[in-house]
Design goal:
- The complex is a heterodimer.
- By secondary structure, chain A is mainly beta.
- The termini of chain A are far apart.
- Chain A is about 0% helix and about 55% strand.
- The relative contact order of chain A is 0.33.
- Chain B is mostly beta strands.
- Chain B contains no helices and 11 strands.
- In chain B, the strands form 2 sheets. In chain B, strands 2, 4, 5, 9, 10 and 11 form a 6-stranded mixed β-sheet that branches.
- The chains are: A mainly beta, B mainly beta.
- Chains A and B meet through strand 5 and strand 10 of A and strand 5, strand 9 and strand 10 of B.
């Protein structure tokens, strides 16, 4: 199994640009989570999906952030427009049935907004 | 507001020493997990505890869930350099919310 795949691994962009982060969950997993990790705030849950449906997006910081899951094997997290304070490592995780308790994380996307 | 506070935040010890990391909250959790994260990678699940008072052992690592399900500890015996990393506790609240702790960065010096 390839595990959770995220792309790109690194992204450097300028303030105001649109950023799209991509995630391919482990095949057969029906939960998908997006997290953001910073030194100041630690690891924060942004949104999670169950069977491609967004269940809880209360962690999404503001309207500039949006996430979609068009099918069971693909999800995107979009930031438009990006700001320097969005600089962080963004992780995608997936799990099967157990939900919170059996999450497998991807390697993360390190985002730097100049 | 951090629901799960970990202590210490940073820990640097010599190889062979023992250590304990704490994860505390004022909230009750239905389950609690411990993860280890290495630089440039995502967190990797070490263990899940679900019963108050539960103790689980994973080789040199011992995990305990508090009786009231509000706290947990991770004890490492005879630390090795390979134990170096960021240790994160995480919990599912009874209100079906999920939170990660503030993290403990462990460095084991050879």
């Amino acid at each position: 199994d390839a595990g959770v795949i995220q792309s790109p691994r690194h992204e450097v962009t300028e303030m105001g640009q649109e950023v799209t982060l991509r995630c391919k969950p482990i095949s057969g997993h029906d939960y998908l989570f997006w997290y953001r990790q910073t030194m100041m705030r630690g690891l924060e849950l942004l949104i999670y999906f169950n069977n491609n449906v967004p269940i809880d997006d209360s962690g999404m910081p503001e309207d500039r952030f949006s996430a979609k899951m068009p099918n069971a094997s693909f999800s995107t997290l979009k930031i438009q427009p990006s700001e320097p304070r969005d600089s962080a490592v963004y992780f995608c995780a997936s799990s099967f049935a157990g939900g919170w308790e059996t999450q497998y994380f991807g390697p993360g996307t390190r985002l730097l907004v100049l | 507001t951090q629901l799960l506070e970990q202590s210490p935040q940073f820990l640097s010890i010599q190889e062979g020493e023992n250590l304990t990391v704490y994860c505390n909250s004022s909230s009750v959790f239905s389950s609690l997990q411990w993860y280890r994260q290495e630089p440039g990678e995502g967190p990797v699940l070490l263990v899940t505890v679900v019963t108050g008072g539960e103790v689980k052992k994973l080789k040199r690592l011992t995990f305990q869930f508090g009786d009231a399900r509000k706290d947990s500890s991770l004890h490492i015996t005879a630390a090795q350099t390979g134990d170096t990393g960021l240790y994160l506790c995480a919990g599912a609240s009874t209100g079906n919310q999920f939170y990660f702790g503030t993290g403990t960065s462990l460095t084991v010096i050879p």
